[in-house]
Amino acid sequence: MTIGIPRALIYWKQPHFWETFFENLGFKVLLSPSTNKEIVEMGVKVADPETCFSNKVYWGHLLWLDEKCDLIFVPRLKANKEKLEYCPKFFGLPDLAKILVKTPILTETFDERKEKFEKTLERLGKKLKTTTLPPPTKEEIKKAAKIASLKDYNPPATLPAEGWAPKERQDFFKKIQTKKPKIILISHPYNLYDDYVNLRIKEKLEKLGAEAIFVDEIPISVNQRTNQRESAVSIKFHWEFGKEIMEKIREILDMSKFRNFELAGAIEISSFACGCDAVIKEFVEKEFKQNKIPFLYLMIDEQTGEAGIQTRLEAFMDTI
Amino acid sequence: MKPIITFARWGNYTIAFKTLFEQLGLEVIPPEKTNSQTIAEGAKIAPEMYCFPMKVTLGNYLPALKKGANTIFMVQNVGGSCRQRYYGVIQEKVLKEAGHNINFLDFRATPKDIYSAIKKISNASFWQIIKAGRFFFKKLRLIEKMEKMAQYYRPREIEKRMTDKILTEGLSKLEELKKEKDFPKLKREILKRLSEIKIEVNKDLPKVGLIGEIYTVCDPSINFEVESKLGKEGIEVHREMDITYHLKKLILPWKDWIIQRKINPYLRSTVGGHGRDAIYEMLHYIKEDFDGVIHLLPFGCMPEITVRPILEKIHQESGIPFLSLSLDEQTAEAGIDTRLEAFIDVVKNYHKNKKL
């Protein structure tokens, strides 16, 4: 039995976790290819015109997988370990996917306010019954989840190579020591790591002579200085990404003071019509403005042209 | 600094909120009525991609602030997972950046928090708060009842525009009413005048249900008076969404559970706001043999956008006419009118063909 996984949106929250997990339970995994023009076009055609660009891309990936596999895995992510919520648009994904594709959808609700992640995995495992094989046992699921969450796990040859290690963590501390102007890129993982969606912004910045730092590369220090630090922007998000982004920004601003390096600028990338970004942007911008760091807000959608982004990046690089 | 209160405007219910604050002994400057100018002013200082109700309420504060108001009341967390819970923080930030020196009271929508927020600002006694709350609910229920009656009378009235005239008069009288002991008399008078409207009884009318986001559905100045326009074209409009409906859901938690059970084939989770309710209401209207459903939402409203494909699927399965209108500061009345006119024709045809 083949399980299809769309390589978009929620996939980037835990890249390679799901394919490794299913692979280790003895299923074949079909990962949709990296986002390309056809996928985006397919998605835009079927999506509600007002939904966010990232969702439209996700529909494209779903349609690509449709009828190529036996099941498509669309988890319903509701809350994480810290009891913080995901984007409300994720809540309805499996139901909307059911309307869109003919292939049956494999889904389970991940709400760690109510149930531990491992427990939910067990329930998911029970749904994996095939005509020939019994559902995987508890131990098998535990083992598969453990292997999947290992960071240095070597992918088996059966998985497409290009799906692997996009999140390869370059040494963050090496990055901040370079002489090049350092620019921090702020966005959701599904915008940062999807090169088609963000129009290869990292490559473009590097060509312009800058060092791009992704916001989620910033390590959060153990002694939690962030809690003690008096921040001018006091807001508590109930969104996991909101909290993470704000924490990491404060962390790097702190770090730039006591490690003595300078942040040249900050760029926030946002998908068009993303509701959560409309809130987060206000506070991110304020944080940088207070520290007198130039801030650029880029909106991406299916009509964004490469030339337009290039011009804006060049202009931004000239100001810093 | 003596607090002078203003608050978020919400359609006809503004009257009830104004009374609530006045009864607590607070000085109130009610927010400006929504018009194209307040909307433009609000949208100018609000974040571009934020949802429409936030821009509208922001625009309504500004003239009141100019007149001297210095304290703003805002409830957060009305919509569960949706962006409504950040209205207060964002509005406070935006207004302070625009140079307004204000005190922003942003509290959670639980009875305890509301009580302590009110207590802090007004120094009113417990008994006074209870009394103010009681008067507030009386007014609120009457406004909702008047709206419901108007929905019934509008398509049947013989003398055109009579219902709207009486409704507006009644609302302004209700706004002026200051003493609770005069309330029963006014209530009788308003209800009597409404029920004296000459109507054609036994008229076979097409029925349309109004679903969607609570703010846009309830505020006639935002939705370009959809209810009244449909009524005048001889269509009976039904709408479940109002403040009482919302409060009932807050107080009676099993309501959510019942709704969830009814919509299980379509959506198995909350999506924030009133996303689930939209599906539930649409299914309900189909069961009640309605002739059309209008879905109203602010542009980019996260819950309503999520459920819209589901509503469209229900529409395709059942064949009921369906129109989804998303509203924002760039929506023009003429555009909405054209779409409504076309939709009215579809509804009337559907109603006629159903009987054949």
General description of the model:
The complex is a heterodimer of chains A (320) and B (356). Chain A is α/β, with parallel strands linked by helices and 320 residues long. Chain A folds into 2 domains: 2-151, 3-Layer(aba) Sandwich (Rossmann fold), CATH 3.40.50; 172-319, Rossmann fold (3-Layer(aba) Sandwich), CATH 3.40.50. Helix content of chain A is 42%, strand content 14%. Chain A has 14 helices and 10 strands. Chain A has helices spanning 17-24, 37-46, 53-65, 88-91, 93-100, 117-126, 138-149, 172-177, 189-192, 201-207, 225-228, 240-258, 275-290, 306-319, and strands at 2-5, 28-31, 71-73, 76-79, 105-106, 109-111, 182-186, 211-214, 263-271, 295-300. In chain A, strands 2-1-3-5 form a 4-stranded parallel sheet. In chain A, helix 13 (275-290) links the parallel strand 9 (263-271) and strand 10 (295-300). In chain A, helix 6 packs across helix 7 (138-149). Chain A is globular, with a radius of gyration of 20 Å. The model of chain B has no long low-confidence stretch (mean pLDDT 91). A 4-stranded parallel sheet of chain B has the order 2-1-3-4, sandwiched between helices. A 4-stranded parallel sheet of chain B has the order 6-5-7-8, with helices on both faces. With 356 residues, chain B is α/β, with parallel strands linked by helices. In chain B, helix 1 (14-23) links the parallel strand 1 (4-7) and strand 2 (27-28). Chain B contains 15 helices and 8 strands. In chain B, helix 1 (14-23) packs antiparallel against helix 6 (126-153), helix 6 (126-153) runs parallel beside helix 8 and helix 13 runs parallel beside helix 14. Chain B is globular and about 70 Å long. Chain B has 3 domains: 4-124, Rossmann fold (3-Layer(aba) Sandwich); 140-203; 204-356, Rossmann fold. Classes of the chains: A alpha/beta (320), B alpha/beta (356). The A-B interface holds A 48, 50-51, 76, 78, 85, 87-89, 91-92, 94-96, 99-100, 109, 235, 238, 270, 273-279, 281-282, 286 and B 47-51, 81-83, 85-86, 89-90, 93-94, 266-273, 275, 299-303, 305-310, 313, 326.
